[in-house]
Each structure stands twice: as C-alpha cells, then as structure tokens.
From TrEMBL:
GO annotation terms (biological process): methylation
CDD domains hit by this protein: AdoMet_MTases
Top-level taxonomy: Bacteria, Bacillati, Actinomycetota, Actinomycetes, Micrococcales
Alphabetical list of InterPro entries matching this protein: Methyltransf_25, SAM-dependent_MTases_sf
Methyltransferase domain mapped to chain residues: 46-139
Protein's UniProt name: Class I SAM-dependent methyltransferase
Sorted UniProt keywords: Methyltransferase, S-adenosyl-L-methionine, Transferase
GO molecular function: methyltransferase activity
Coiled coil ranges: none
Superkingdom of the source species: Bacteria
Amino acid sequence: MPNEAHGNDAEAVWEELYRERGKAWSGRVNAALAREAAALEPGSALDLGSGEGGDAIWLAQRGWSVTAVDVAPTALARGAADADAAGVSERIRWVHSDLATWQPAETFDLVTSHFLHSPIEFPREAVLRRAAAAVATGGLLLIVGHAAFPSGHEHDTLALPSPDEVLQSLALPPGDWMIVTKAPVERPGSGRPGEPATLVDSVLSLRRL
C-alpha cells in the first residue's frame, strides 16, 4: 500500500512501489493479451499502464508499433532497457504520463489495459472510456482486471468490477461494438509466497465495427 505521505500523488506512489523492489513483475506477457491478440494482424497498439513493459515488448516482437504509457519513470526505464535487449526498442514509444489526465492524440488498432486497480484515488472509468475512444474502426479494445485477489494479496478497499460491469461503465453507443470475450477467465499463478494458486481475471474484449 502507498506511503500516506504521498497522498494522491500517483507518480510518487508508483515510483515507491518500483524502487523498493527489484523487478516488480515477471516480464512475461499477460495471459489474456497473449490469448486475445495472438491471431491479430500487427498494427498500432496502445498499452495503458504499461509498467515494466512485458506486454509492450511481446507486441513489438510480433510486429506491432506500440505506445506504452505509465506514470512511473523507473518502470518505463526498465521497460526501455528490456526492449533494447530484445532488439525491439525502435517499435516502442515510451510515454511518461498519468493516465488520470493523459489524452490519446490518435487512434490505434489495439488498445489494451491490464489491472488498472489503484490503491489511491484514480478515475478508472473515465480512463477506460478514453481508451475505448482511442480504438480505430476494426480495432480491438482489451480490458483485463482482477476478478478476485489471490490469497495474501487482498485489498478490501479496491473494487473489482465484473466484465458486465466494465462493459456497462463504458457507456458505448449501441451497435458500434461487437463483444469478443466477456467472461471471468482462470489462469495458473501464485498466492502466498511459494504457493501455487488459480487466479481469475475479468476479461472484456470488444471489436469496434
């Protein structure tokens, strides 16, 4: 949880998270992205809350041109270093910005957002509506969240909306979108340190018509 001294300073909160540990995440692509995007024709992609860049690098390795946005400079620096090591740095544009206020200036063939759950105040619904608006005609919007927290990682104050609730909150114009996936999806993971667990993701993917 964030240091109370940071209040709602998003950059300070997430910088503290990344700096207080080594590599925060595995560096592997998120399972839902690998499943939903594997068969897509590469184009332009927007990765919202890109963290240390595992998803952005996976997309770039498959020919996508990626814009990766995150509020934490340390996370972006780690992602850029890993992209350089993977030989795909020219395919990724790293953007340091707070998603609470950042506005996409273009549209994308794929817009992806994974686990935008914040321990501080964060306008998640507004961010996801802007994400939907940034999807090009024929493009895919992928929103993945936790359906439940694994054992040992509970945060009682965080809302975990279902795929139906996420879809409703987007307030999309009728007839403009086709549902591809709208379901809780299980995947293997870990709960308490050293203990395997079955994790459940809330997955919503939509095709813009």
